[in-house]
Each structure stands twice: as C-alpha cells, then as structure tokens.
Write a structure and sequence with these properties.
single chain, 0% strand, mainly alpha
Length: 72
C-alpha cells in the first residue's frame, strides 16, 4: 500500500503516538508527584508533567506544520 493515503496514515499514527507518549509521561509525573516523600522527587515530578504537557501541545503541531502540503 503506497501512495499519499499510506503516507497520511503513517503521519497520523506518528502524531497520535507522540500524544500518547506525552500522556504516559504526564501520568508518570503525576504518579511521582503523588507518591513522593522528598522535595527533589516532587520537583522532578512537576518537571516531568510540565515537559509532557509541552510535548503534547507543541510536537504534533510542529510535525503537522513540517508535513503540510505545499501551496500550489
């Protein structure tokens, strides 16, 4: 299966995978934040959650911008 439809499908699943990985990272950060007893671990959990949320927001948008069809 070659052609533009297969390429679009692969790109869609790549963006979906990035979103799922970011969501998993945010859940992991929340887990660290909730189960931590030390300040260092809490700060690490907050940093992981913030970076995962940033990843969810920016990476799929930048991939879509990179893969956009050029105007004719």
């Amino acid at each position: 299966m070659n052609g533009p439809k297969a390429t679009a499908r692969r790109r869609y699943f790549a963006m979906l995978g990035v979103r799922l990985a970011g969501t998993a990272g945010a859940v992991f950060g929340l887990f660290l934040l909730g189960r931590s007893e030390h300040t260092v671990t809490r700060v690490l959990g907050i940093a992981i959650v913030l970076s995962a949320l940033l990843m969810i927001a920016l990476v799929p948008r930048s991939l879509a911008h990179r893969w956009r069809t050029p105007p004719e």
